Amino acid sequence: MPIMQAAPVLLTRTILYTAMTRAKKLLILIGSPKIVEFMIQNADSKKRNTGLEFKLRHI
Hints:
Layout: E1 2-3, H1 13-22, E2 30-31, H2 33-41, H3 52-57
Parallel strand pairs: 1-2
């Protein structure tokens, strides 16, 4: 997984966790250890308004 400077909203603990849990056998992080540390510390998550619940209820 490439780890590079991006908007803080994209550098969250949730994104890192998702990558780790979806990796089947091996996850290689390529990039700055400082950014990985920032991602670990960045527990800020915004509520996502995907409309999925509405779509599932109105099939």
